[in-house]
Design a protein that fits this description.
- One of its GO terms (molecular function) is peptidyl-prolyl cis-trans isomerase activity.
- It is an enzyme of class 5 (isomerase).
- Pfam families: FKBP_C, TPR_19.
- This protein is α+β, with helices and mostly antiparallel strands.
- It folds into two domains: 115 residues, Roll (Chitinase A, domain 3), CATH 3.10.50; 214 residues, Serine Threonine Protein Phosphatase 5, Tetratricopeptide repeat.
- It contains 13 helices and nine strands.
- Strands 1, 2, 4, 5, 6, 8 and 9 form a seven-stranded antiparallel beta sheet that branches. The protein has a two-stranded antiparallel sheet with strand order 3-7.
- The longest helix is centred in the last third of the chain and has 30 residues.
């Protein structure tokens, strides 16, 4: 009789627990009330497909506890996690498959979808129902990409062009994510996989335009990545590959200029920047690089002059320091050209801005 009263009391207490009350207003995802969901902020687009790679923020809570027992919200960079491989909780994987990009949701996972009857001592007690708040930041559908790279080269050659381009774009998107996280070596490998794939494509003339457009994007990504890796010669090579496909591409011209600048090939850098400026006259990055080039070239010529004076000039000449000026027609012409061009660009930008303001743009 006493045991029955105790059991009834425990049941009533359980019914009035915060998680029980919360679960009553939540959506039953699995049909057995094992995974319950409440949307806090709706997302947009398609739901997460199986085998996707996801980017999430999450916090896990035990009942009656304010602090999370597990969270990644305080990390600066969030890593991509592969569904079916990197997610350890069955309930979380099921819940993620119901979410859309940008969605913030709250989930309750019963023990069989979380840590089981044994729990995870000492952190998680036995038979614990846990609450997770999950924000889906982004996801990449890598199913086709994974399938493609598991095939033999002969099987890959039979893939339709549309699917090949999609696989290459997926690899590039992976590279972009890794680049934003400043994992430049890993980003480079993703871009190179995309590049290798596109270089093997044999497309009809009508479809070659799409292939070339995809190649240009990857070559530009590789050029920028090699600049970050402080390998300007490789950056220049990929910038020039992009220019072979589109000789007026301003971004490719700019990347080549940056690479030449790093290689101290100042005149080539100037030539690339002038061509880039012709395509995009009001691009601040290009104009600022021209000013930077002028300043750097002047300092370079001063150092060259100083070195020559020390090597060949009189050792105790009192006028040696006075002669440390940039002289010679070619350096002066180069420098004056850059300085005048930079000032004209600033003036042009100011005039253009004034004109737009007068027109109410």
């Amino acid at each position: 009789h006493i045991c029955r009263h105790i059991c009834n009391g425990l049941w009533q207490l359980r019914k009035t627990s915060p998680y029980h009350r919360l679960g009553q207003r939540m959506q039953d995802v699995t049909g057995d009330h094992g995974v319950l969901k409440e949307i806090i902020r709706a997302g947009s687009g398609e739901t997460v497909p199986p085998d996707a790679s996801i980017l999430v923020k999450f916090s896990g809570y035990l009942e009656h506890m304010d602090r999370p027992f597990d969270t990644n919200c305080y990390r600066r960079n969030h890593r991509l996690m592969k569904l079916g491989e990197d997610i350890t909780l069955g309930g979380m994987e099921i819940g993620l498959l119901t979410m859309k990009k940008g969605e913030l949701a709250r989930f309750l996972f019963k023990p069989r979808y979380a840590f089981g009857a044994a729990g995870c001592p000492p952190l998680i007690p036995p038979n614990a129902t846990v609450l997770f708040e999950i924000e889906l930041l982004d996801f990449l559908d890598s199913a086709e990409s994974d399938e493609f790279f598991n095939l033999t080269p002969e099987q890959q050659a039979q893939f339709p062009l549309q699917k090949v381009l999609k696989v290459a774009e997926t690899e590039r998107e992976f590279g972009n994510y890794l680049f934003r996280q400043e994992h430049f070596m890993d980003a480079r490998e993703r871009y190179k996989r995309a590049s290798s794939l596109l270089l093997r494509v044999n497309a009809e003339e009508a479809e070659q335009v799409r292939v070339d457009a995809a190649k240009i994007l990857v070559f530009l990504n590789l050029s920028f990545t090699y600049l970050k890796l402080e390998q300007p010669a490789r950056a220049l090579a990929y910038g020039e590959k992009a220019l072979k496909l589109d000789e007026k591409n301003a971004k490719a011209l700019f990347r080549c200029a940056q690479a030449c600048f790093s290689l101290a090939e100042y005149e080539r850098a100037r030539d690339f920047l002038v061509k880039a400026q012709k395509q995009q006259p009001f691009n601040h990055c290009i104009n600022n690089e021209l000013k930077k080039l002028a300043s750097c070239y002047r300092n370079y010529m001063l150092k060259e002059k100083e070195m020559c004076c020390r090597m060949f000039g009189p050792r105790n000449s009192p006028s040696a320091g006075e002669n440390l000026k940039v002289t010679g027609s070619e350096p002066l012409l180069f420098l004056s050209f850059i300085l005048v061009l930079s000032s004209l660009l600033v003036l042009s930008e100011d005039c253009s801005r004034s004109m737009y303001e007068q027109q109410g743009i």
